[in-house]
Amino acid sequence: MRDVALHTEMSRGAPDAAASQMVPDSRALTTSDLSLTIDQKPLIRDVTLSLSPDGITMVMGPNGAGKSLLLRLIHGLIPPSSGHVHWGGRTLSDDLRRDQSMVFQKPVVLRRSVAANVDFALKARGVRDPARRDALLDHVGLLDHARQPARLLSGGEQQRLALARALATEPKVMLMDEPTASLDPASVLKIEQIVQEARAKGTKIIFVTHDLGQAGRLADDVIFMNRGRLHEYGPADLFLSRPETQEARDFLQGRIVV
Ligand SMILES: Nc1ncnc2c1ncn2[C@@H]1O[C@H](COP(=O)(O)OP(=O)(O)OP(=O)(O)O)[C@@H](O)[C@H]1O
To answer: Domain holding 213: CATH number?
Structure first.
């Protein structure tokens, strides 16, 4: 692996509480030498990571860095060309995937009512529970819209519905690919609040963002990708204030990253 800067107690000298999150944990989500090549183009290259089972990990990097592909590989949506994803020491399987859910930049909603969208997610788990559905809708601030066709919701509301559906499965890991990219600040804050609440309940969040302010508000740790490679992984405060690689410094200062 080239150029990976792990912000650790050793690399920084002084002990740091956040650095303890980097210690491998038997419940950790790990990738080992994860690579993806399509049409002979290496898109993800030898990514080795050990993510704490708690907290919010933000994935950052310039356009085309491989952030979305990394998320899809971790979720098992695409198979790697080589390397592995393990979770709690076990190889990612359909069974483990059931404990993960994914939220995309463009919310996925079904052509039915808001309530029926959540019912559908519950039913996929063999659950029929209108009270739980209503509690989920209330949690994301959509209970008043329950009977409305989901397609008529605003973009921010649709994303909150997507979150309610993702949360309906009580995931241990929630993967979020730029879920607030096209939303206004008020909608962004509502979604961030829901994400923080999920984190507080113990859901591991892996969240792709381009927004440095959002990383500052949410991230416990940050993965920085560039050109398919992992360049840095470490506590958010250290990454945001003192990145170790030139690429990350350029990215954080708004310069073009090459
Ligand atoms: N199915 C595919 N076939 C070929 N190339 C692909 C495929 N999917 C993604 N890529 C390429 O892989 C690279 C990484 O894509 P990815 O979507 O992961 O980037 P990203 O970091 O999420 O970018 P952005 O911030 O623009 O969303 C890009 O150059 C993209 O064009």
So the answer is: 3.40.50.300
User: What are the DSSP calls for 151-165, one per residue?
Assistant: GGS-HHHHHHHHHHH
Contact 144, 107 (CB under 8 A): no
pTM: 0.89
Instruction: Give the distance (Å) from ligand 1 centre to CA of residue 148.
Output: 35
Q: Relative to the CA of 225, which ligand 1 atom is closest?
A: 21
pLDDT, tens digit (0-9, with 9 covering 90-100), for 75-118: 999 999 999 999 988 888 888 888 899 999 999 899 999 999 99
Asked if 137 and 182 count as a contact pair (C-beta separation under 8 A), the reply is no
Residue 177 lies in domain: 5-102+171-252
Sheet of 221-226: strand order equals 5-6, 229-235, 221-226, 56-60, 204-208, 173-177, 100-103
Q: What is the count of structural domains for the chain?
A: 1
Mean pLDDT of the chain: 89
